[in-house]
Amino acid sequence: MRALWTRLALVLALALAPLTPALAVQPDEVLQDAGLESRARQISQQLRCPVCQGENIDESNAPISRDLRLFVRERLVAGDSNDEVIDNVVDRFGEFVLFDPRATGSNLILWMAGPLMAVLAALAAARFLRARNRPTPEVAALDPAEAKRLDEIMRGN
């Protein structure tokens, strides 16, 4: 019975393994200081892999991600703050490596585009609804001469 439970646990673990996040951090990269390692992991999850683009450097197996993880840890050991480390990586690779780009400079246009478009859409919708609900002007009935002429046109005379 115990062997059955062991096999069941193994099958369940293997079945659920693809659902767990794949962390690419190698054992030789891990810092001895748990506090610094925690900060390094936090920073690594904010930085995009320049090659993979859809993964952060903490999860990417690309060689450049490994180099960036090591660089982050070097800077933390040297005494840099989290912001200083991120600024240093951004200086080398540009703001592209940030999963959450800063709302400054040319990025401000991108940050403001969404809310601006929402306001413009709301204004256009309000204008449309106001115009749709406006009463139509009364149309005067045709006088007898106009009715006779219309009748002639419709009959083809």
From TrEMBL:
UniProt cross-references to Pfam families, sorted A to Z: CcmH
Function: Possible subunit of a heme lyase.
Record protein name field: Cytochrome c-type biogenesis protein
Residues of the CcmH/CycL/Ccl2/NrfF N-terminal domain: 13-154
Coiled-coil segments: none
Signal peptide range: 1-24
CDD domains, per database record: CcmH_N (cd16378)
The entry's keywords: Cytochrome c-type biogenesis, Heme, Iron, Membrane, Metal-binding, Signal, Transmembrane, Transmembrane helix
A GO BP entry: cytochrome complex assembly
PANTHER family from the UniProt entry: CYTOCHROME C-TYPE BIOGENESIS PROTEIN CCMH (PTHR47870:SF1)
Transmembrane segments: 108-129
Family of this protein: Belongs to the CcmH/CycL/Ccl2/NrfF family.
GO molecular function: metal ion binding
Record's GO cellular component terms: plasma membrane
Annotated source species: Paracoccus liaowanqingii
